[in-house]
Amino acid sequence: MSKQNRLRRGILLGAVIATSTSLLAPTRTFAAEIRVKGSDTMVQLATAWAEAYRKVKKDVLVNANGGGTGTGMAALQNDTTDICNASREIKKEEAEKTKSHTGKEVKEFVVAYDALAVYVNPNNPITEISVPELTEIWAEGGATTTWDQVNPAMRGKIVLVGRQNNSGTYDYFREHICGKTSDKKQREFRSGISELNGSSEVVENVAKTRLAMGYSGMGYKTDKVKWLKVSNKKGEHGVEPGTDVARSGKYPIARKLYLYTAGEPRPEVKAYIDWILSPAGQKIVEQEGFVPLN
Amino acid sequence: MSGTKATPKKAFNFFDAVEKPTEWLIRLCGWSSIIGIAAIFLFIFKEAAPMVPRLDWFHLFTSSRWIPNPAPGNEASFGALALLVGTFTTTFIGLVVAVPVGLGAAIYISEFATGKMKETLKIVIELLAAIPSIVWGFIGLMVLGPLVSQIFSAEPESVWSHIMVTLHLASSDTGAAQGTNLLTGGVILALMSVPLIVSLSEDALRAVPDTFREAALALGANPWETVRRVLLPAARNGLLAACMLGMGRAVGETMAVLLATGHSNRIPLALTDPVRTLTATIAAEMGETVHGDDHYRVLFILGIVLFVITCGINVASDFIVKGVKKANQA
């Protein structure tokens, strides 16, 4: 018995240490707090904005969190966030729910562009891929499951690494890559894709897995992965993801990034969004690997 | 007169007043686990209830098509077969590794180790139990995963490649596709349940009276014979219970398997195929569902399924232990 007790005491001690260290963190008071929640794709960007804004307005605390676009939308409906970061356009029912729950119309701000890159391991000899080929690889019922079907220079099963099914990135990639079924419905992803809870996890996994192919925001590129050039049709020249091609629409998998608020934002929130749209805020967009508005 | 009378009465009243509430307080403490479990079950069931009549249960248990967030215009598909298989296979691999190691360690600590070694081992194993599960997951992802993918990789057409494919160690001729898979997850689960199994097994072994050991010695048994013929049968109930509790730990583990199994919804055909478990699915998806929609409710139904599985394990272990007891008495 004493052993079990000691076991328990060990666990308890760990918990106590963890709690007390978090309690000992210094606290400060701020005149205003801005709550930001939403897209995981944008969480690094949102944190960078929040940190830089601290130097602009010292008495405003911006609390930036991820969780996924869906989470941010839910928070907007429940009025537990001031700003929802979204890596896709708001859905009609989400806007309606926000209206019915909070009584306010949502307001939309386009703050940046993002290009979804298709990542592979640096050891992979393949450099280009077309959207129809990607469809066969990723969509349910697609014919391509091994690398030699894409290019004889590479062997082995394709290990697919994607995002969890409520992330905006997941929705966006499905919409643009999986295509439509014969009865004009959106095709779903195939089973057996590793669904990871974060954009950088996807990239990290691809870096460690020789046979992997993953999709994630352009901003998550590291030198341990490479991205494929993407073309709209097989045989066309692939386009490398980049700022100009994302903005101009030449790159096939590019999208806008949004902020949403329920109703007209509070003055301090409005000031924050204005700052994000200003050259200072847009410079951070560029630093974080996304594409600024202009 | 009245003063002297009042004092003892007051003292009497005080204890009398305290007696009953204390009794009730202790009683409540005793009942709290029952109340707790009833409340948990009620809560899970309440959240899942609206979906119970609407859900295609046959589909849930026979299909692996898990598409809870379909594209606009598509029907959601709640097929959890692969998730169930994932939970059972990782647990099975975990137990295959953990039970021999755990029992072996318990036997060594209780019967062979002495002095400082014994104390050190006990402390280290208790420390092992205090490592948070997310850390285990990280070890799986960053350390064990790369190791597994290195060991289980091969050139196509090579001998090792043929061995792996024939023995279902890997499902393709180039070996394990990714480091986070069934084997990695299972080994991490094993490492997590070993401390529990060791602690409880050692208790069970220590509970065997020394007279048994002395009798074995007197009959000329060597240490190995003593352990195998005398101690293991005598401690059978406790050892079984230890393994069952280790299994319960493995089934319910979430964060570690989320990171270490690859989180890929498919039925594994080889030891190094990635899998996805019930718990990891609930953890990964619950935070971001809209409260009250079908996906949310189905995740609670998965919770009920898990609840039934772990209850089943506990009840089964109870029966096994009782059965063994009866057999021993007969």
In short:
The complex is a heterodimer of chains A (294) and B (330). In chain A, 38% of the residues lie in helices and 22% in strands. Chain A is an alpha/beta fold and 294 residues long.
> Can you identify the CATH superfamily of the largest domain in chain B?
MetI-like
CATH architecture of the largest domain in chain A: 3-Layer(aba) Sandwich
CATH 4th-level superfamily of the largest domain in chain A: Periplasmic binding protein-like II
Number of helices of chain B: 13
Query: What is the residue-averaged pLDDT of chain B?
Result: 88
Characterize the main sheet of chain B: 2 strands, antiparallel
- Which CATH class of the largest domain in chain B applies here? Mainly Alpha
Instruction: Summarize the amount of helix of chain B as a percent range.
Output: over 70%
If you compute it from the alpha carbons, what radius of gyration of chain B comes out, rounded to the nearest whole angstrom?
26 Å
Textual characterization of the structure:
In chain A, 38% of the residues lie in helices and 22% in strands. Chain A has 294 residues and is of the alpha/beta class. In chain A, strands 1, 2, 3, 4, 6, 7, 8, 9 and 11 form a nine-stranded mixed β-sheet that branches. Chain A has a two-stranded parallel ribbon with strand order 5-10. The longest helix of chain A is centred in the first third of the chain and has 23 residues, at 2-24. The N and C termini of chain A lie far apart (69 Å). Chain B is an all-alpha fold. Chain B has a two-stranded antiparallel sheet.
